[in-house]
Structure formats: structure tokens, C-alpha cells
Design brief:
Length: 294
């Protein structure tokens, strides 16, 4: 199925969130910057425009698929990756409930006029231009997500913000690799070396879920359905926003980024950027295939 036709097979038209940073377990005044879009050949090794993918977003209504990478933001909805906007290393990236509206953080790249680090930046035109909201020159949010009440980010310190400009510091004893939230819920998941930390109040308080598997990447398919991928590629789904988890399959070759959306009969659709390209599962992680063959 062509990627543009994904919307006809979804029950929901919500923009899907995707938390997608490389795991620390194993790895490692307003202004705007503008640039024209350009087509970029996909890399021969993986079919993706960059070997460093930090974020993945899928719009279930339009079928648009975006990659936030070391080399900038790319639309990979078709076989040709299209670069959007200036070259910024988008370490943190999260969509919102509004089409074309995203928050990001990271570092400016060649040709970008934004400060370093980026702080929190926002686009309302799908990534073509970015407005500087707060903490420019101060914060590089490697982990970033949206909740019903606002933004949760980690730049070495956990912070929450209702408006993207004023921040509250949240003392925590862990460093999240990934923050996964949903604009329709207050629940946030944080993947850590110790396990999955869970917040049910928009990131203000946290509890370690000692019964959860060790998860490397996490994403919400809806306000309650969550997906996780372990370091060994095992795929887990949770029907209760990360409280309990069930192993449903395995993804080969490892993942760099993860996204999910509602599916039929309780099985979410799962997208993953892998070293071999973008893959998708339509059966809750039991099987994966190249996304352009979906």
C-alpha cells in the first residue's frame, strides 16, 4: 500500500507521537530560520536520508511521515526523501494535536541562523521555519514530548512547561533516553537504565514500574495504548498506558526511532526507523515489513 494511502486504513485521524532518541543505555526573544525544501536521495545502505535518526512522526490522517535527523527534518512519505527547512540537528522532536505544528531542540547545522543549543523551538508550517520559544543557548532537550497539559523535556534536568516559555524544574533521580507522551493524556513514560519510569500527572511526579520490561524506545498509539522496543529488538504493547506490558514479537536489526497509531482489534500500527530502512507492523508487532510495501 502506498504511504499516502495509510489514512484510509486508520480508525483515527490523530497525529501520532513518536519519542525517538538513541538510547543512553547503549549509545550515546523570538526568531526564525528559513530554507527552501529540496529532494534528497535516500542513502543506499538503509533507504533513509540520514544514518542518525532521532525522531519519527506519522500523521495517520494525511499519511505524512517525517524523520528528525542529524541532518535536519525530512519528509519520507514517498520514495524520495524531501528535506524541509534549515539544517538543524533535531535531537528532540515531538508533534502536537495540530497539523504542521512541532516542537524541537538540538543544535544548529550548516546554514542555520539559530543559536546553539537551540533551546525549545516551534514550527507551525511543518518545519519550513522555526520560532525560538525559550532557553536558547541554554538547553538541548535530547528527550522531548507532549502531554495534555504541556511539554516535558530533559536537558540534563527534567522540566515541564504549559506554554513552552516558562519552565518548572522537576527533581528526578534518573536520566531518560526517551520521553513518550500523548497530547490527549497526562501519562508520560521515560525509558531509563533502571527500567520504565511512569508519570500520570504530566511529568511532575514519577514512579519506577519495576514490573515493566527494560524498554529502549517507547511511543503512544493513543491515550492508553503504548508500544515499546527493548534493546534486543523485542516488541511490547501496553493497553493501559504503560502499567502492564505484553511481548508480541521482535524487530530485526535494531531500531533508531519509533512511532505508533491506533489499529484494528486492539493491535496498534507500529513504525520503526531501522538501519535497513523504515518498517511497519500492522499486527501489533508480530510481523514487520518495509513501509513502502504496506
Amino acid at each position: 500500500m502506498p504511504l499516502q494511502s495509510l489514512a484510509r486504513h486508520r480508525r483515527t485521524a490523530a497525529v501520532v507521537t513518536a519519542a525517538a532518541l538513541l538510547l543512553a543505555l547503549s549509545a550515546c526573544a523570538s526568531g526564525s530560520a528559513t530554507s527552501t525544501s529540496a529532494s534528497v536521495p535516500a542513502t543506499a545502505s538503509s533507504g533513509l536520508p540520514s544514518s542518525h535518526v532521532h525522531g519519527l512522526s506519522v500523521n495517520a490522517e494525511t499519511g505524512q511521515i517525517l524523520l528528525a535527523t542529524h541532518e535536519g527534518l525530512f519528509d519520507i512519505s514517498t520514495n524520495t526523501a524531501v528535506k524541509i527547512g534549515a539544517t538543524n540537528d533535531l535531537m528532540g522532536f515531538t508533534p502536537t494535536m495540530e497539523e504542521g505544528v512541532f516542537y524541537a531542540s538540538g543544535h544548529p547545522g550548516q546554514g542555520s541562523s539559530l543559536p546553539s543549543p537551540l533551546g525549545l523551538i516551534k514550527t507551525t508550517d511543518g518545519g519550513r521555519t522555526w520560532d525560538q520559544l525559550s532557553r536558547q543557548g541554554e538547553s538541548d532537550f535530547h528527550a522531548l514530548t507532549m502531554t495534555k497539559s504541556g511539554i516535558v523535556g530533559h536537558d540534563g534536568t527534567m522540566r515541564t512547561s504549559a506554554d513552552g516559555k516558562n519552565w518548572k524544574t522537576v527533581p528526578v533521580g534518573f536520566a531518560p533516553a526517551v520521553l513518550a507522551g500523548n497530547p490527549y493524556s497526562e501519562t508520560v513514560l521515560a525509558t531509563t537504565r533502571e527500567g520504565v519510569q511512569r508519570s500520570v500527572d504530566g511529568g511532575n511526579t514519577w514512579t519506577l514500574n519495576s514490573a515493566a520490561p527494560l524498554i529502549q524506545f517507547a511511543a503512544f498509539a493513543s491515550a492508553t495504548d503504548a508500544v515499546g522496543i527493548a534493546p534486543d529488538g523485542a516488541v511490547y504493547i501496553s493497553p493501559d498506558a504503560g502499567a502492564t506490558w505484553k511481548n508480541t514479537g521482535r524487530i530485526e536489526g535494531g531500531a533508531q526511532a519509533l512511532a505508533a497509531s491506533e489499529g484494528s482489534e486492539g493491535s496498534p500500527w507500529i513504525w520503526a526507523a531501522t538501519p535497513d530502512g523504515l518498517v511497519v507492523s500492522t499486527d501489533g508487532g508480530a510481523t514487520f515489513r518495509p513501509a513502502d510495501a504496506a
